[in-house]
Specification:
The chain is an alpha/beta fold and 375 residues long. Helices cover 28% and strands 28% of the residues. It is built from eight helices and 17 strands. The structure holds manganese (II) ion.
Length: 375
Amino acid sequence: MVRIVHIADVHLGYQCKNVGDKSTGREQDFLHSFQHVVDYCCDPANHVDALVIAGDLFDMADPPSSLVGFVQRTLSSLRQHGILVVAVPGTHDAYGYKSCVYRKGQLEGMHILTSFNEPLIREVSGEKVFFYGAAYIPGGNETLFESFSPFQEEGIHIGIIHGSVGLPAHWERRGQDFQLEEHDIARSHLDYVALGHFHNFKQIQCGTTLAVYPGSLEGRDFSESGERYMVVVDFRGKTPHITPIAVNTRTVKAIDINLENQPLESVSDVIDHIARNYRDPASIVSLNLQGRCQFPLDLEYVRQALGDSFFYLQLKDSTTIVDSTIVSSWKEERTIRGMYVTTLLRKIAQAQGEEKAILEEALKIGVASFMEASP
Ligand SMILES: [Mn+2]
């Protein structure tokens, strides 16, 4: 049986500017996850034949020497263990750049495919395996896959493509992306297509061909939350069977917390509630606070107070104080704060969507200021 490990979008060298002073440690996580994949491949118990990298191994076309050296070291151990390494360039480490790392003849032992017409053909675990991949160059070879057809020879035929298959509604069509459709892949009759470019795991059955995005190995932001995978592909005959295995070093999580119906009488109670129920010092967490709250929350204060409870914490305040006891009592008063809350409550009742959210925010800021002025 032929077994490959398929990864993509490793983004080695990504600068994690979105985790404040934790960026250096976070950058190591990306290296660590890649090393984890390499260690898995090199473990004889796992019987891996080949490691396939479907683009964006690096976050930049011309990575620093230290990073190239790190990858070279992993390539050496993969070679020692007889693991074939096959890769295509991506969009971040694109072949179109003259200074592209894949043009420099470094990365010894990595087979870099640049044209579908020149597949890598290897005898692997007693089977003939064909690896087809290409370097997409914007403005140069947009139609490179349209005329593609695999060799008419017995064996396992694997495509490696960094590009967009179909397009999620929120993605803009961008000139630098290689775009193809499910029917393009179906027409190829390849046995498996190792995809890269979309950062979340997705499998797409295109006719008789299975195409898979493993997703990124580490979440770069909150759109890449949850476990991150390498995909182990076993070919029983020519049919691929996939097993995604989580390999991320750290997890990015987005969690909604409803504060309603909790006995929370002060900001300290909120902080205690979060620390007690959601503490997660190893993870990068975005908490979206929701529901009715009796008082406005000072987010920066809450965030600092929760410091050690998370590797990195982002807070979003979606709570409402419209029905709070304090607002209800003030609106009966013939005072400035009474007029303020009455006016805002009327506007909030009439507003929709974003305007409503802005007015709710204004109510919280105003109430917080009045509370500070006369606690
Ligand atoms: Mn990518």
